[in-house]
Design goal:
- With 147 residues, the protein is α+β, with helices and mostly antiparallel strands.
- It has a single domain, classed as 3-Layer(aba) Sandwich (Trna Endonuclease, Chain: A, domain 1).
- The protein has 3 helices and 5 strands; from the N terminus they run αβββααββ.
- The protein has a 5-stranded mixed sheet with strand order 1-2-3-4-5.
- A hairpin with a 6-residue loop joins strand 4 and strand 5.
- The radius of gyration is 19 Å and the shape is elongated.
């Protein structure tokens, strides 16, 4: 009969520190990707209205505006552009759609703007790829952001 021994407290602390370090690295990488994406959009004439906007319905990585278009931007950084483009799930698109509609309805100056879901895909050694209206069929039929 084998005896199960509890892990030593030192080993538990070491594992916890490793998990925290991985989480910190991921957050820094995500923040860096969002800054690169924002600079890319600004170079294309967009005005950045917010980073990591928390709404009751979900978080928006970047909120940008150009003309009458309000772009709800999801930023994905992966090892390849293809992987970044495929990384956004149906659930994430639904969350982005709800969060974008909430912001458009509740922020002064944005009522009446056409809301669009965009994607910026980043990969090492490649230029960022901006996909305007990345999911055109994500909105309910007849909804154009000005309700």
């Amino acid at each position: 009969m084998s005896v199960v021994r509890p892990a030593r407290p030192e080993r538990q602390a070491q594992r916890r520190a490793q998990r925290q370090a991985r989480g910190t690295a991921a957050r820094l990488s995500g923040r860096r990707a969002e800054v690169i994406a924002a600079l890319w959009l600004m170079a294309k004439g967009y005005r950045i209205l917010g980073f990591r906007l928390a709404t009751p319905l979900g978080e928006i990585d970047l909120l940008a505006q150009r003309g009458g278009v309000l772009a709800v931007v999801e930023v994905k950084s992966r090892t390849s552009l293809e992987a970044a483009l495929e990384a956004v799930t149906y659930e994430q698109r639904a969350r982005l759609r709800r969060a974008g509609a909430h912001v458009a309805a509740h922020r002064a100056g944005l009522r009446g703007a056409v809301v669009r879901l965009d994607l910026i895909a980043l990969a090492p050694g490649r230029r960022p790829r901006h996909v305007p209206d990345a999911w055109p069929n994500s909105w309910p039929k007849g909804w154009n952001g000005d309700q």
